[in-house]
Structures are given as structure tokens and as C-alpha cells.
Amino acid sequence: MNTVLVTGANRGLGYEFVKQYSEGNFNVLACCRDISQAKNLKTLTDESENIEIYELDVGNLENIKNLSKQLQDKEIDILINNAGIYRSSTVGNINYDEWLESFKINTIAPYQITEAFLNQISNSVLKKVISITSKMGSIDDNTSGGSYIYRSSKTALNSMMQSLSHDIKHHGIATLTLHPGWVRTDMGGMGGWIDAYESVEGMIKQIKKLTLDNSGKYVDYAGKSINW
Ligand SMILES: NC(=O)c1ccc[n+]([C@@H]2O[C@H](COP(=O)([O-])OP(=O)(O)OC[C@H]3O[C@@H](n4cnc5c(N)ncnc54)[C@H](OP(=O)(O)O)[C@@H]3O)[C@@H](O)[C@H]2O)c1
Predict the structure, then answer these.
(1) Which residues have CB under 6 Å of ligand 1?
(2) Which of 2, 20, 131, 135 is paired with 145 by a 20 to 30 Å CA distance?
(3) CB of 183 within 8 A of CB of 8?
(4) In terms of Cα–Cα distance, which of 217, 206, 203, 215 is closest to 14?
(5) Contact 158, 175 (CB under 8 A)
(6) Ligand 1 nearest-atom number relative to CA 183
(7) Domain residues of the chain, as ranges?
(8) What does the radius of gyration of the chain's CA atoms come to, in whole angstroms?
């Protein structure tokens, strides 16, 4: 059985990743910020033999390092950096602390988590690092402006993933920077075009197709390439 680690696993896309991967016979290491608040995830875990829950605040580097130590003997085939935040921002109305917080959670944490778990990923069979980004991080696609905080944190995530794709190739690790679509979750809101099931089903297909030869791409859940 292969193993996948998912961050932000208690709700939205993270929860759906846990559900679909566990149904697909993966061992799932489901990480969430506060287990006591993760009711649905706990119920899912009780019903399934292949899900383990761990507490991880991705904004806390000590927490990341401690979890990596705790899981040092595991092989992690697929790491999914999914946890993320959206803070609204318009000209004249930007909270700079929230901007820094967003960089910490959306950009820096995926790097820190990947670095912390590099051994476990290198020791696995599939060796894949995935970050859930957004099309809003595409500079090419930015024709409407706004969302300074979110857009820039995801653009920086894309840039970080591109460097990572070169730097960890020699470990045999492939990377994929994935846009989930506009999805009906707490973040996406009810106006989203697709539900979490469709988004995650599509993203898992793209992750399955990922190899070292096609590593370093920026695509959406349906496999459509996005310009950086
Ligand atoms: N939904 C969309 O339309 C859409 C579109 C493009 C990209 N995305 C991206 O997809 C990913 C998942 O989004 P979603 O729609 O599922 O959002 P969501 O429903 O708001 O869920 C966000 C998840 O991230 C977790 N999280 C936030 N800060 C964290 C921290 N410091 N430590 C650990 N976990 C933390 C949340 O945990 P708590 O419950 O503890 O807060 C929650 O599990 C994000 O990276 C987002 O940017 C979403």
C-alpha cells in the first residue's frame, strides 16, 4: 500500500483527498490543525482502517519538525500541501499582518513541510510532491487585478515549486503544482463551479499521471496547462 500525507485534512479539499485516497487503498496520514475540532475527519477515520490523524499547524515550524521526527520511519509516497488561507485585500484596504500570515501559510509552509519530509519521500516508491495552488497565482491569467494578498502568496508558491522541481529531481522526486478549479468549499463559497468530489477526483488523476519526465508542471484538476 502506498502512503499519502495531506495537510488541512479536516475540511474542504483536504478532507475529500483523505476520503478518496483511503477508498483507493492508500494509507492516509491526515494532518489537521486541531484534532478536537475535526469531527468529520474523526468519524471517517473510525470507519476506515487506513487513515491516521496527526495534529499539524503548518504555520508552526517546530510542529512540522516534530511531526517529521514522529513519522521518520514512514515512507511517504505522495505529499499534498493543501492547507491554505484566503485573506481579502483591495487597494487602500490591505492588512499587512494578514499578507505576512498568508505568505507563511500558503508559500513558506509548503516549502518547510517538503524539506522536513524529504527523507520519507525519497525512501518511498512513488516520490511525488504536490502543492495546491490557484489559477489566481498566475500572472498571465491576472486580467482583473485585486486579491493582492492571495494572488501574490500563490504566485510565490508557484515560483517555489518550480525551483523545488529542479532541486529535488536528483532525489527522484517529481512535483506538480495543481489548481483545483473553483470549488464549493468554505474558501470557494457556494458560487463555485464544481464540488469537492469532482475537483479531487480530477486532481488524483493528474497526480497519478505525474512522472519525473513530466515533473514541474502547473495544471488544473482537469489536466489543462496554466501559463505561469
Ligand atoms: N476552493 C477553491 O475554489 C480553491 C480554488 C483555488 C485554490 N484553492 C486552494 O485549495 C486549498 C484547499 O482549499 P479549500 O477550498 O479546501 O479551503 P477551506 O475549505 O477553507 O479549507 C482550508 C484548510 O486549510 C487548513 N488550514 C488553514 N490554515 C492552516 C494552518 N495554519 N495549519 C493547518 N491547516 C490550516 C484549514 O484548517 P482549519 O479548519 O483548522 O482552519 C482547512 O482544513 C487551499 O490551498 C486553497 O488556496 C481552493
Answers:
(1) 7-8, 10-14, 33-34, 57-59, 82-85, 105, 132, 134, 179-180, 182-183, 185-188, 192
(2) 131
(3) no
(4) 203
(5) no
(6) 3
(7) 3-220
(8) 16
The length of the chain is 228
Fold of 3-220: Rossmann fold (3.40.50)
Q: What pTM was estimated for this model as a whole?
A: 0.98
CA distance 76 to 28: 9
Nearest CA to 153 out of 87, 219, 106 is that of: 106
C-alpha cell at 215: 515533473
